[in-house]
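ZP: hey, is the cobalt (II) ion complex queued? I don't see it on the tracker
AM: it wasn't, my bad. submitting now with these inputs:
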Amino acid sequence: EFSWKLADHPKLPKGKQLALVVLDGWGEANPDKYNCIHVAETPTMDSLKQGAPEKWRLVKAHGKAVGLPTEDDMGNSEVGHNALGAGRIYAQGAKLVDIALASGSIYDGEGFSYIKECFASGTLHLIGLLSDGGVHSRIDQLQLLLKGASERGAKRIRVHILTDGRDCLDGSSIGFVETLEKDLTELRAKGIDAQIASGGGRMYVTMDRYENDWSVVKRGWDAQVLGEAPYQFTSAVEAVKKLREAPNTSDQYLPPFVIVDDSGKPVGPIVDGDAVVTMNFRADRMVMLAKALEYEDFDKFDRVRVPKIRYAGMLQYDGELKLPNRYLVSPPLIERTSGEYLVKNGVRTFACSETVKFGHVTFFWNGNRSGYFDESMEEYVEIPSDSGITFNVQPKMKALEIAERARDAILSGKFDQIRVNLPNSDMVGHTGDIDATVVACKAADEAVKMILDAIEQVGGIYVVTADHGNAEDMVKRNKKGDPLLDKAGKIQILTSHTLQPVPVAIGGPGLASGVRFRKDVPNGGLANVAATVMNLHGFVAPDDYETTLIEVADS
Ligand code: 3PG
Ligand code: CO
């Protein structure tokens, strides 16, 4: 019979305070000038790496190790934190959608039947990120969905695109729009009225996260639903080309635009009787739009007109909130996470990050679940992120504030696990600004130091790791690993995550003597961290968890 009770670890004590630090976007790569972690002054992380070899190692943070379809899939924070917290590897978003599209089961589900009701007299709108990044969405899935929906009765289709340049190269959006236009032309040849209706850059239009800045979602709403935007074009290719000509712009930050017909009328506002699908599989940057589309009571911005639509997400974005109510593919059901086990075994837990990553150490960590397991045992602290700026302007972000809160939580003695995410290397790495990313890495390192110092003071244990790579490689490379140049001879900046492994370091005065990394888990990944942490809290992990990374040598 199932029980939440974890067995006592035969050799490791309970009751040690443990700091669990996740550096977001901090991978391990060759030391060269595009490795911002190498370039930055990072004495604390350096000392962990140069310390005892049995207390520092690398683990996989991409591809199959985190439930993604192939080894070419870079890691991301959602799947990374899911694996870290769940201790097991679940087929993830992209893979679930691939399976459902390949088998055709996506068209047999409740979600598709629901939106299909609108096909006879309404328009099918698809809203989402247009790229092959594979973090939030994939263009090939959109292509399959367009084909599948049109074969199943959709006669009028409008695509609302969000340009990327964050999970793929900046400047690649034009190519993706051209590819999509080609498909839509083919659909039109078959008598289906299919067009791009609106667009904008993902970081400026629609894809905000964790309620950081609702004006981003509003800009999208105005373009997608109301058909209103500061820019009008008759072609999306032209729109992206023209808007990119402005100084200091990039695919991520293109302003919103709508496509209009020859008489200047928007071709695809969303109206009563239409069907809407948000085609991102990843939740964090679609939840806000899902709320705007679905909630009757909504006060985040003035929606002006709320069309009566049938709406489905590619996946359900929040299981707890049941949001959206309808979805095309069922999400991975992640149960019995390490967070829940530990709380149920008496481990008092503190979790903290700033807004842009707060959901990562709470919601994603806890298996895509909002809220506390046991309010009397847990405290989750969100430090408001700077909003309305790009993070290269403030590369230190809130690292110091996060570290101070963690330090205070450690020194208070009220918690057994103190878990934080330090966003700098990822968020600033995504801007592609190398100098700022160096500053970001230094700031994260200083935050780690403050937390480790507090652990030293209370005789605790630390585990320092990361969720995926980013700042350790800022340039696109060829197969041999040499930087790639663009037509003008400039290096191609890599704004995305990487395929690199990430470090795991353990230590602290509370670490029992003899604890060391095993040598027989060479392919360990992020999912092995949960069992490791359970051991360090004095417990044996459940049988179905990925194995622990540590052993205790007889002294
Ligand atoms: C983003 O949403 O910012 C990127 O696509 C992925 O970032 P994350 O996986 O590190 O949150
Ligand atoms: Co990232």
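AM: back. The pocket of 3-phosphoglyceric acid (ligand 1) is lined by residues 24-25, 76-78, 135-136, 166-167, 285, 426, 430 (CB under 6 Å).
ZP: great, adding it to the tracker
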